[in-house]
Amino acid sequence: MVKESLPSWVHQDSDEGLVHVNVGGLKRSLCSSTLKKFPDTRLGKLLACDSEEDILQVCDDYDVQQKEFYFDRNPGLFPYVLHFYQTGKLHIMEELCVFSFSQEIEYWGINEFFLDSCCSYRYHDRKLESSRHRSWDDESDVSSIDTSVDEISDLNRDMQHFQEVRYGNIRKCLWLTLENPGYSIPSKLFSLISIGVVLTSIATMCINSIPEYQTFDSEGKLVEDPTMQALEVFCSCWFTFEVVTRLLLAPNRKKFFHHPLNIIDMVSVVPIYITLIFDLLVGSESELGDLGRLIQVFRLMRIFRVLKLARHSTGLRSLGATLRHSYREVGILLLYLAVGVSVFSGIAYTAEYEEDVGLDTIPACWWWGTVSMTTVGYGDVVPVTVAGKLAASGCILGGTLVVALPITIIFNKFSHFYRKQKALEASVRNNNRRKMRMS
């Protein structure tokens, strides 16, 4: 942590202590108050140095008389670093090599997330394009992304919270292991185990529904297979362990209960204990009537466990984010479909209501119009008159055009959120590698 009192080597001839640096011959002075805002960067770590040995761990040389720090780096790129300390944002010029710039900001301990939105897309796009022609490390997986200041600040606040609690580093490592499958090898193993448990749970539920695997007692009541029951108990214990562990390690409990993935986890666990309580206190489902059907609904809610795979799949998380941020486009799509269904179902009713083909009511025509306009075409109800067939043709063609209109917008948003999610995962992974190299 940065000290509140300034070290002795800081010039205090003004209200704010000055730190003098020499980067490849380029001399500049920075206020210590500015460096305190970024304590994890290389220049920010100078304020935590107590001795000359500590200083030489951060810079290449130190002039005791001038109290000047020397860094053997490219002086042409240092103005971009200075601009970052002044504004809190990184900018990159068009003529700069993205790989050279990436190595430079990594040396100074500055994260790529601080790239401003005006430069972020161009930077990552050029980086990805260059990686197709030359070998680079895993950071080349990161493509274009619009930097979100809110997400960066939230992540920094979460990391800062772990520094303020007891056993913060251990809790932070465990939390990232549970939350980010690409954080480390243990996190990947944990993710694989969790995926295996989810698939086992779904397979168990499917097998229990197959008549060949069902057994009944002398009274005709369904008896659960002991092996399947043991697997279900194990899966339930694992899901409970996951939810409780994440809750205990969460840096922000309030935000934990509002996160969609955590809500899915709780929805997949809570029905287990509700049905268990009913079975223990009330009795079997066959003796409860309507209440028994309610318990069956809770049992069927176990199918939501398949949504737990979204925690370990970048594509599923991106799909959820796309739907959440595409409500306008989805609303327009539903509006178009509703108008088309209403128009063509009215035409079909007028043309077919005297024929005995199942289109004798407006609601029945709505069903036919929905199936036709979405190009599903069950074939359970078909028009027989010429006017009805023309209406069906218009309905099908109109549905094809209407459904295709917002698809491009939704797909572009999906691509954006997918790249964004990959960049977030890569940033956490690269930060971990950087800290391991520094330690």
Automatic annotation (TrEMBL):
Gene Ontology cellular-component terms listed: cytoplasm; voltage-gated potassium channel complex
Q: Which residues cross the membrane?
A: 189-210, 230-249, 261-282, 330-351, 390-411
Is Membrane set as a keyword in this record?
Answer: yes
What is the topology of this protein in the membrane according to its UniProt annotation? Multi-pass membrane protein
Q: Which SUPFAM superfamilies match?
A: POZ domain, Voltage-gated potassium channels
Q: Which Gene Ontology BP annotations are present?
A: action potential; protein homooligomerization; regulation of potassium ion transmembrane transport
Question: Which GO terms fall under molecular function for this chain's record?
Answer: delayed rectifier potassium channel activity; potassium channel regulator activity
User: Ranges for the BTB domain?
Assistant: 17-126
Q: Which keywords appear in this protein's UniProt record, sorted alphabetically?
A: Cell membrane, Ion channel, Ion transport, Membrane, Potassium, Potassium channel, Potassium transport, Transmembrane, Transmembrane helix, Transport, Voltage-gated channel
Enumerate the subcellular locations listed in this protein's record, separating them with semicolons.
Cell membrane
Query: What does the UniProt function comment say about this protein?
Result: Potassium channel regulatory subunit that modulate the delayed rectifier voltage-gated potassium channel activity of KCNB1 and KCNB2 by altering their kinetics, expression levels, and shifting the half-inactivation potential to more polarized values. While it does not form functional channels on its own, it can form functional heterotetrameric channels with KCNB1 and KCNB2. Each regulatory subunit has unique regulatory properties that can lead to extensive inhibition, significant changes in kinetics, and/or substantial shifts in the voltage dependencies of the inactivation process.
Concerning its family, UniProt says:
Belongs to the potassium channel family. S (TC 1.A.1.2) subfamily. Kv9.2/KCNS2 sub-subfamily. Belongs to the potassium channel family. S (TC 1.A.1.2) subfamily. Kv9.1/KCNS1 sub-subfamily.
Please give the subunit comment from the record. Heterotetramer with KCNB1 and KCNB2. Does not form homomultimers.
Give the protein name, as stated in the record.
Delayed-rectifier potassium channel regulatory subunit KCNS1
**Species of provenance:** Seriola lalandi dorsalis
